[in-house]
Amino acid sequence: MLAASSDKNQQARNAMRASLVLGFVMLVLKVGAYVLTGSAAILGDAAESIVHVAAVMFAAYSLALVGKPADEEHRYGHSKVEFFSAGVEGGLIMIAAVFIIFESIRKWVSGSTPGHLGTGVALILATIAINGVLGAVLIRTGKRSQSLILVSNGHHVLTDAWTSLGALLGLGLMHWTGWPGWDPICGLLMAGNILITGYGLVSKSVGGLMDIADPAMNRALDEALARETAARGVTFHALRHRDSGSVHWVDVHLMFPDEISLKEAHKLTTEIEVAVKATVGRRVMITSHMECAGDHDEMHPNGEES
């Protein structure tokens, strides 16, 4: 189990290093394409890549922080940084979108026309191919290692590829119709798509940091606890859970018959926890509070659970 977890962490780190190196390569190619063409859409694409490189650097730091064990200041570990990283990346994406909107409108008003399209288009095509493969690998590796940081970064990389496609579409329409307005229009459309992606990442970040319950996880935990407690003549209540990035923390109260021994209650509790962990399909840490059915109401007269 520990060896498998270590292998997944190593895969995640390798994927992040590849994302950072290729991010710099993409940036150089896109800046070169903009210098050659002067295209508003390509400028927006290059601006998005600058933001992407900054976001990947923060994501790489966050991924290293996630792997640190719990300490005196962070008793629950450091995995919550995954949500913070997703929020930063989403916010930077949205800032890039605003910049693209500004530059597209400025280019439209000025009526400037891109040039040297052949070489510029070739450079952008190369970035699309690289980003498409990289984004897919990052998302797959992130899901396999249950890393929100990698999944968020993968979506950002794919957004970068779509941005590049939008830039090429604008240049193609401009070439076919002879109207330079297509270039800034496609820049604006790309900005809208980027805003949606950035908003999604920020929303996921806020949800995680505010401990918004995942309905699917709540259903899975409730069904697993109901099944495992019923099989052992136990009931449960006061189920609470929160996502902490790579770990899902669960608190639950288990109610036992009065005559059961502490040793037997602890044995059944451990069996229930192990069975639930094996069911939900992700890393779960369960804290169970054992209670006796006979004096439960007396111990909690106001319905308040400790």
In the CATH hierarchy, what is the architecture of the largest domain at level 2?
Up-down Bundle
General shape:
elongated
Gyration radius, rounded: 25 Å
Number of strands: 3
Largest sheet: 3 strands, mixed
CATH class of the largest domain: Mainly Alpha
Instruction: Provide the helix percentage.
Output: over 70%
Distance between the termini: 33 Å
What can you tell me about this protein's structure?
The protein is mostly helical and 306 residues long. It has 2 domains: 2-209, Alpha-lytic protease prodomain-like (Up-down Bundle); 215-299, Alpha-Beta Plaits. The chain is 71% helix and 9% strand. The protein contains 9 helices and 3 strands. The chain has helices at residues 2-37, 40-66, 81-110, 117-144, 148-177, 182-209, 215-230, 262-280, 296-299; strands at 235-243, 248-256, 284-292. A 3-stranded mixed beta sheet has the order 1-2-3, covered by helices on one side. Strand 2 (248-256), helix 8 and strand 3 (284-292) form a beta-alpha-beta unit. Helix 3 packs antiparallel against helix 6 (182-209) and helix 7 packs across helix 8 (262-280). The two termini are 33 Å apart. The mean pLDDT is 81.
Which helices and strands occur, and which strands form pairs?
Elements: H1 2-37, H2 40-66, H3 81-110, H4 117-144, H5 148-177, H6 182-209, H7 215-230, E1 235-243, E2 248-256, H8 262-280, E3 284-292, H9 296-299
Parallel strand pairs: 2-3
Antiparallel strand pairs: 1-2
Helix pairs in contact: 1-2, 1-4, 2-3, 2-5, 2-6, 3-5, 3-6, 4-5, 5-6, 7-8
